[in-house]
Amino acid sequence: MAANVRFCGSPDPPYNQVIGGKSLSPALVAECLAQPFFRGPHDPSGLGSLRDIDTNAVAAAAAMLHTFDDGVFARRNNQEGYKEQKYHCQTYARETMVYPVNRNLDFLRAFAVLLVAGGHSLAFFGFVAPLGPVQTYYIGKLGVYIFFVHTSFVLMQSLERSPGAYAFFIRRAFRIYPLAILIIVAVASFHIPQATISTHHFNGWQWDSMDLFANIFLVQDFSFRVPILGQSWSLIYELGMYLFLPVLFLVARSVNRAVGVYFLALLASLALYHPILVLGYPVVANFWYFAPCFLSGVVAYQIAKTKQSKLPAFWWPIFVLVITLLYSAAETHPVYAFCGLLGLVIPRFEQITFRPLVQACHYIARYSYGIYLTHTACIYFAFERGARLPLGVRIAVFLALLVSVPVILYHGVEAPMIAFGKRVSQSVAAVSPLPTDPEFCESGICTPS
């Protein structure tokens, strides 16, 4: 077992099993976890808690890596065959590996979507004036900025496990588009006003078939078409950043490189934003404006892979709340400073352990995409269409919709489409989920169960 591997906790029963004739001891699993593509982003010396991961997947991958270490590949005379089988072994290991749940990222994602929903709720009820030093108008935007940092951090992890850029793009398409298309088509079909928010009223634009087409493909801003679902604007920039993330994954391979790329993007943003805006290309200008936000997540990903001292977990929620309040109270709004600071500190904290908070954030984070896309409709039906109902009833209806609709959409649309996208990406990338070479699969190690 590698000297720097920290094996924490007693293994669950699935570790103590035999796969392909190999007895999987805790030491063997820990040896497997020492491989670079098994290291958790927040714990470079190991995965911290083995209970946070899919034990069967790790056990199967451990058996394969054990076979590799025994020299099955090394005995091959064909060097190209050796390289090919090693590639398939590592690909399968990455594919079956499940990152440990990063509880701090769950908190960050949950906090972000609640900021967006809270900001839109305040706007609907007319709370647009400052609440003390806090500029309520910026609360929703802050949630989106946090999403940008969080998304690039998580997707860098996804690229680490992905067999290639094509597979990455396919998975992201099946992750983003199905639910967005469903919501946009539903809003358009039932003429639900969801474009903008004013006090106690939602507004919708008159749209035509080209507007609908542009909104379905999430290019409405680029094609200068009217929006149907207001909050979908952020998905446009997120999809644009997807095109650059595989390149950034290859270029920004260390903290220094990631920081260097971040500052180059920052300088480009400062230099290009206003000239491009003046030329009449606001979407391109905004893309450069948001680029440093996404790159802050790339910096966080690289910092997370280094050994470093950790701050107490207790301070993580407090820190996020404080910098959010400070940013919303600033006279000017330096988005670069906010996102840059967030990216620097994400990996600096121990994982939160307060069980009620952990569980609440985990469930909110899981359903956050559905919450993001449907929360304005929940506000509309509960408070505008139900304006004559008693306030208590309206609040109850709003909470019921806000909880139930994203859960139904996740299990009915999101999760199946994510799984389907994974299968399609494996097929298109021509990556076999299990190597089939007889010598490699001796003792049935690689035989699907």
Strand order of the largest sheet: 1-2
Q: Biggest sheet: strands, sense, closure?
A: 2 strands, antiparallel
Q: How many DSSP E strands?
A: 4
Question: Helix share of residues?
Answer: 55-70%
Mean pLDDT: 78
Secondary-structure-derived class: mainly alpha
Rounded radius of gyration (Å): 24 Å
Number of spatially distinct domains: 2
Q: What is the quaternary state of this protein?
A: single chain
Residue share in β-strands: under 5%
Can you tell me the overall shape? globular
pLDDT < 50 stretches: 1-29, 31-59, 62-82, 95-99, 431-449
Provide a descriptive summary of the structure in words:
It is a single chain. The chain has 449 residues and is mostly helical. The chain folds into two domains: 13-98, no CATH class; 103-428, no CATH class. Helix content is 61%, strand content 2%. It contains 16 helices and four strands. It has helices spanning 26-33, 55-69, 79-96, 103-124, 139-161, 165-189, 209-216, 233-242, 245-251, 255-278, 282-304, 315-329, 335-345, 355-366, 368-384, 391-428, and strands at residues 18-19, 22-23, 196-198, 201-203. The protein has a two-stranded antiparallel ribbon with strand order 1-2. A hairpin with a 2-residue loop joins β3 (196-198) and β4 (201-203). The radius of gyration is 24 Å and the shape is globular.
